[in-house]
């Protein structure tokens, strides 16, 4: 399975309004997550910023997050980095709790004070993925200075991205190096998890986001990241 080449174009478009940070991007250690289950198709990319400055995050949702499907009164879908990879048969429950090496807990998170949030609570820090009539969401990008690419308990590598519908885990995909040709290890990178409330998961779907071969090309700060992604 490959990421669609259209994602590359979406990434470039999303990056256009964050050019002030592009000069800080690190060309190595780029991580990606592909979600394709239960009608939800979404792509995530995490590019390290220099001097351990966190990550620039790109997100594209191609389908599945419709207003009809959304349960939350806010009309949004939460999404987080969880401590463990996706289980067999796309089991999102197997991903464990949120990545929370600082043990801050979920209840304390406010977007105005991101330092009160778990490292993996992306929607808490940056807002939910808002449902649309079509289910697709325009590409978006932001910087998150709390994301880490190293450290046994802090790295996002080998973990997973999980999308929730009012607490229920509805789709998930592994986080892997962009040039990895096989699924990452099913062992967790530490046990810095946090309680996750409801852990109901829908298991249907056709593929795990970890089984990906990807090459990216992208001019950022004069560096070419590479680019051919197609399912």
TrEMBL record:
<keyword id="KW-0732">Signal</keyword>
<feature type="compositionally biased region" description="Polar residues">
    <location>
        <begin position="181"/>
        <end position="190"/>
    </location>
</feature>
<dbReference type="InterPro" id="IPR036423">
    <property type="entry name" value="SOD-like_Cu/Zn_dom_sf"/>
</dbReference>
<feature type="signal peptide">
    <location>
        <begin position="1"/>
        <end position="21"/>
    </location>
</feature>
<dbReference type="InterPro" id="IPR053257">
    <property type="entry name" value="Cu-only_SOD"/>
</dbReference>
<dbReference type="Pfam" id="PF00080">
    <property type="entry name" value="Sod_Cu"/>
</dbReference>
<dbReference type="InterPro" id="IPR001424">
    <property type="entry name" value="SOD_Cu_Zn_dom"/>
</dbReference>
<protein>
    <recommendedName>
        <fullName>Superoxide dismutase copper/zinc binding domain-containing protein</fullName>
    </recommendedName>
</protein>
<dbReference type="GO" id="GO:0046872">
    <property type="term" value="F:metal ion binding"/>
</dbReference>
<dbReference type="GO" id="GO:0006801">
    <property type="term" value="P:superoxide metabolic process"/>
</dbReference>
<feature type="region of interest" description="Disordered">
    <location>
        <begin position="181"/>
        <end position="208"/>
    </location>
</feature>
<feature type="domain" description="Superoxide dismutase copper/zinc binding">
    <location>
        <begin position="57"/>
        <end position="167"/>
    </location>
</feature>
